[in-house]
Amino acid sequence: MSTTTLPTPSDLTITPRDRKFERGELDPRLWHGGSVEATAIYNALSTTFPVGEAYFVESVRAFREGTPPKLAQEIKGFTTQEAIHSREHAAFNRRAADSGYDLSKLEAQVEYRLSITKTKPPIVSLAATMALEHFTAILAHELLADPSHLAGADKDAADLWRWHACEEIEHKGVAYDTWLHATRNWPRTKRWKVKAKVMLYVTRNFVVDRTAGSLELMRQDGVSGLRAWSRLLWYLWVYPGMFRKIGVAWFKFFLPKFHPWNEDDRDLLRAYEASAAVRAAPAPVKKVRNAA
């Protein structure tokens, strides 16, 4: 596919929203509506972002030389957004640690997974980034599309996740477009085989590691064994069922002519911006009549 015919919207602008969220200890510790499993999966996801998003930035930047001007500008916006995400999730992870969670085991596993790809040619890291960015984009879409995923969560923590989801959707095509540019001279069959193999590998590791990380955090809250497994699997695969609900969008990655922007879901961004503006607006001042 030529980089001159990419389906990324021509009027798309990637806009870093430099927000800073709460820095104090998570209160309550089970910030997601008192749910052990909901708090655990979001905390487990957050542990991946500080080093993971830095890895994404490094992987994409390695191939920005010679990209078309529009893509070069989008890479700049992407790297800025990801750097801010790393900062805010590092702060969120410190809040979780201050609340008593030991995240070291989860963080070590993320470092281990990334260390494997870092020993391979840079195109492998770009392929992994391209696959993981699709994963984060479809998770972000589901998070914004279905309010049940953050129902009952602490307001500031929920705001962090919605903000992050918004920007993941906005820049969802950057790594993929960079991949198309970097592999523009590859035969289509080779490109498809590599991206399919990488996505299957990434998916296996993502599901296994996030499940294991969540179970570890649930254990730290006194829930383990069959009870922990049943609660976590119900939450992820039944209700609200985040992993089940992204299944179709995940499968589309393997179809011919796939591109992240085949689905233009910027309506979710507009809805987020409108709701964020409402939340940030000052409360109206009520007029008080003078007593006669």
UniProtKB/TrEMBL annotation:
Quote the protein name from its UniProt record. Metal-dependent hydrolase
Alphabetical list of InterPro entries matching this protein: UCP07580
Report keywords, A-Z: Hydrolase
Q: Which organism is it from?
A: Sphingomonas sediminicola
| One GO MF term attached to the UniProt entry | hydrolase activity
Q: Which domain of life is it from?
A: Bacteria
Q: Which Pfam families match?
A: Metal_hydrol (PF10118)
